[in-house]
Prior knowledge:
By secondary structure, the chain is of the alpha/beta class. The protein contains five helices and seven strands. It has two domains: 132 residues, Vaccinia Virus protein VP39 (Rossmann fold, 3-Layer(aba) Sandwich); 54 residues, no CATH class. Helix content is 27%, strand content 20%. The mean pLDDT is 94.
Amino acid sequence: xxxxxxxxxxxxxxxxxxxxxxxxxxxxxxxxxxxxxxxxxxxxxxxxxxxxxxxxxxxxxxxxxxxxxxxxxxxxxxxxxxxxxxxxxxxxxxxxxxxxxxxxxxxxxxxxxxxxxxxxxxxxxxxxxxxxxxxxxxxxxxxxxxxxxxxxxxxxxxxxxxxxxxxxxxxxxxxxxxxxxxxxxxxxxxxxxxxx
Length: 196
């Protein structure tokens, strides 16, 4: 069974080909870890995956699609559609719910505390925690990405209606659910789709 975990970052999984912007050694250095030999990591072009048509059983993308530009978004969705097996290939992805983030932004306090600092754990514009009560903190990073590296910018937004429209455009059978990201209050959309 061929399963791809695209945009894996530190969420590396056994039994998957973990595809990321960074190589194994770069990931080990970045996160200060030594990876087990049974974790497969591949650094490749996600818009031209090295797999023939309809050979992949599953594509997993958790918290990744919002990092794609508007132009790259369609290219990536079509590439996933190309490699997944017809009638059996599963596309499982999660994205922040931008409708929810926009409502939280409107309701949050507007109290700027400090310039953002990279490389400091939980700085979040001087708030020092993941509260969503202040616009200038974890909420801002949830909208724009934590920007703590070249791949850490959010360039796109997703709503439940947009996800449904994309799945229907690409002829996927799908289910959608929602969950709270790591108890932070950031609502996520989860889509599990089958290529028809």
